[in-house]
Automatic annotation (TrEMBL):
Keywords: ATP-binding, Cytoplasm, Nucleotide-binding, Nucleotidyltransferase, Transferase, tRNA processing
SUPFAM superfamilies, sorted: YrdC/RibB (SSF55821)
Pfam families: Sua5_yciO_yrdC
Domain of life: Bacteria
InterPro entries xref list: DHBP_synth_RibB-like_a/b_dom, Sua5-like_dom, TC-AMP_synthase_SUA5
Stretches assigned to the YrdC-like domain: 3-188
Organism: Gloeothece verrucosa (strain PCC 7822) (Cyanothece sp. (strain PCC 7822))
A biological process term (GO) from this entry: regulation of translational fidelity
Principal cellular location given in the protein's record: cytoplasm
Documented EC number(s): 2.7.7.87
Gene3D superfamilies: DHBP synthase
Class in the EC hierarchy, top level: transferase
GO molecular function list: ATP binding; double-stranded RNA binding; L-threonylcarbamoyladenylate synthase; tRNA binding
Protein's name in the database: L-threonylcarbamoyladenylate synthase
Length: 193
């Protein structure tokens, strides 16, 4: 599909289409959580590589995770310190998360708030979206909207100049019974893990 305006991208997202827009790290492929299976098909992504739930704010994302009051306090403290930003928190998933977002382990979900004005504007209009980097599975992340439009002609791609992201994927940390575990080191190195 051709590149589209911000309004068309938001409307397409709400209609169940896969879209692409810039973030603070690498551009995202995104869809409403209930349409996350379309992202796996578009990327030719293995089912054991889960998607991330991206939101405009932490408040938008907390309903999608499930933990004790003490755990929520710990997660909120870390989230308030580093988000928005290039940090993904992998937490126990609530029943609101579709199994299709993490088919091999639907009990967990990665959440993130990007530090990017355009991404936050889109997410504030659509609600949290299932996301992943814009690339075919196993290939490097595509960093330009033009390249994304070429590789994914069926995806609605934002046709507006936006500040590019860092080009580096986010740090990913997972909450376990023993505390935080680093799954992927990225630009943010949280202290006191």
């Amino acid at each position: 599909m051709p590149k589209v305006s911000l309004a068309e991208l938001i409307a397409g997202t709400k209609a169940g289409k896969v879209v692409s827009f810039p973030t603070d790290t690498v551009p995202a492929l995104a869809a409403l959580p209930s349409y996350s299976g379309l992202i796996f098909v578009a990327k030719q992504r293995p089912q054991d590589k889960p998607l991330i739930l991206m939101g405009a704010s932490l408040e938008d994302l907390w309903p999608y995770v499930s933990g004790t009051a003490k755990e929520l306090d710990i997660w909120q403290e870390l989230g308030q310190k580093y988000l928005p930003g290039a940090l993904t928190l992998v937490l126990p998933a609530s029943e609101k998360i579709p199994v299709a977002m993490n088919p091999t382990d639907p009990t967990t979900i990665g959440i993130r708030v990007p530090k990017h004005q355009v991404a936050q504007m889109i997410l504030s209009k659509t609600g949290p979206l299932a996301t992943t980097s814009a690339n075919l599975s196993g290939e490097p992340a595509l960093l330009s909207m033009n390249k994304i439009a070429q590789v994914f002609p069926e995806v609605l791609t934002l046709d507006e100049e936006s500040p590019p992201g860092s080009g580096s994927p986010s740090t990913v940390i997972k909450w376990t019974n023993l505390g935080w575990e680093i799954l992927r080191q990225g630009p943010i190195i949280p202290s006191n893990l």
